[in-house]
């Protein structure tokens, strides 16, 4: 009797999780995903998570957005996808830099991905993300404030979908 009760409890729990997951997916599909943006600037405190937790942080394939609208969310999702791809180059890529230069590489990836994001923001007719209005140090300071995930923590039990490698990033070791 105990094993039957335990088995029924297991199936009820599994059903609740399934219903919650489907409901969340439908909500995200209708309203767009909740994208933790902006990403934090890499530093010694979050570098380990950047490199080790990458597959546990969300990616935003096209199917995660509503069929129309949400162009601002699409640009943010694209920036996160690009950044995660480039972090992978810095941390694990075939031409990854020596360990002593990984932080420099991830900072370059962060700045380049957010610079590209701002170029894309200015190419639209909608309002531009606030930090993109600033230049140089002021822009980076703005992007590195009010962070939703400053430590780059991954989501437990989440595995990022396979995404294509984003082109356009080459680490410049001379800039370190």
Automatic annotation (TrEMBL):
Designated name of the protein: Extracellular matrix protein 1
Subcellular location per the Swiss-Prot or TrEMBL entry: Secreted
Keyword Secreted appears in the UniProt entry: yes
One cellular component term from this protein's GO annotations in UniProt: extracellular space
Any GO BP: regulation of bone mineralization
Residues annotated as signal peptide: 1-25
UniProt keyword annotations, A-Z: Repeat, Secreted, Signal
Source organism: Iconisemion striatum
């Amino acid at each position: 009797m105990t094993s039957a009760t335990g088995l029924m409890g297991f199936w009820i729990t599994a059903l609740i999780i399934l219903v919650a997951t489907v409901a969340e997916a439908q909500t995200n599909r209708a309203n767009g995903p909740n994208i933790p943006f902006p990403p934090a600037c890499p530093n010694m405190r979050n570098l380990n998570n950047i490199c080790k937790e990458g597959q546990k942080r969300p990616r935003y394939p096209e199917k995660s957005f509503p069929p129309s609208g949400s162009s601002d969310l699409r640009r943010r999702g694209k920036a996160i996808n690009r950044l995660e791809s480039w972090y992978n180059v810095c941390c694990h890529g075939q031409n990854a830099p020596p360990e002593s230069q990984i932080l420099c590489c991830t900072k370059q990836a962060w700045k380049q991905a957010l610079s590209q994001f701002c170029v894309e923001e200015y190419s639209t007719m909608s309002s531009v993300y606030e930090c993109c209005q600033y230049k140089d140090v002021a822009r980076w300071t703005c992007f590195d404030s009010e962070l939703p995930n400053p430590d780059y923590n991954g989501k437990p039990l989440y595995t990022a979908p396979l995404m294509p490698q984003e082109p356009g990033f080459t680490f410049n070791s001379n800039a370190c």
